[in-house]
Design brief:
With 108 residues, this protein is an alpha+beta fold. It has helices at 10-22, 53-63, and strands spanning 2-8, 27-33, 40-48, 67-76, 83-92, 95-101. The structure holds ligand 2BA. Ligand 2BA binds next to β5.
């Protein structure tokens, strides 16, 4: 048994969730927040047999797409305590996926 934790952008997450459900996966959706952008994203938990992990990851690859974002980051102006916002382009991945072993799985 494996647990897939996938952090995805909200727009893609809904599509991935629907496709996973259609394929017979059980999924839990958590509303999460990225630590860097402090913006809302979505974490999907998928508990599944090891043989189906690649199938689930293929669904994430299909439904989740990387996007570029411009963020404003404070850069020191050279004067103590003075910061001016500077635009910076970052790429947010389609999905950040962790696959972990499950020692024990029970439904009681
Ligand atoms: P955030 O932490 O809000 O990060 C959004 C994007 O900002 C990241 O996209 C990356 O391109 C950039 N970024 C993150 N930390 C940075 C830093 N210290 N310096 C410069 N740029 C930085 P992704 O890498 O695709 O990550 C998307 C979201 O997935 C992250 O949102 C976070 O919620 C999660 N994530 C990514 N890697 C993770 C990890 N190793 N552990 C836990 N969560 C992770």
């Amino acid at each position: 048994m494996k647990l897939i934790l996938a952090i995805v952008q909200n727009d893609d997450g809904h599509k991935a969730l629907a496709a996973l459900n259609d394929a017979g996966f059980s999924v839990t959706k958590l509303a999460t927040t990225g630590g860097f952008l402090r913006a809302g994203n979505m974490t999907l938990l998928v508990g599944t047999e090891e043989e189906r992990v690649d199938e689930a990851i293929a669904i994430f690859k299909e439904r989740c797409h990387a996007r570029k974002h411009i963020v404003s980051t404070p850069i020191s102006a050279g004067i103590a305590g003075m910061y001016t916002p500077q635009p910076m382009e970052i790429q947010i991945g389609g999905a950040t996926i962790f696959v972990v072993d499950v020692d024990r799985f029970e439904k009681v």
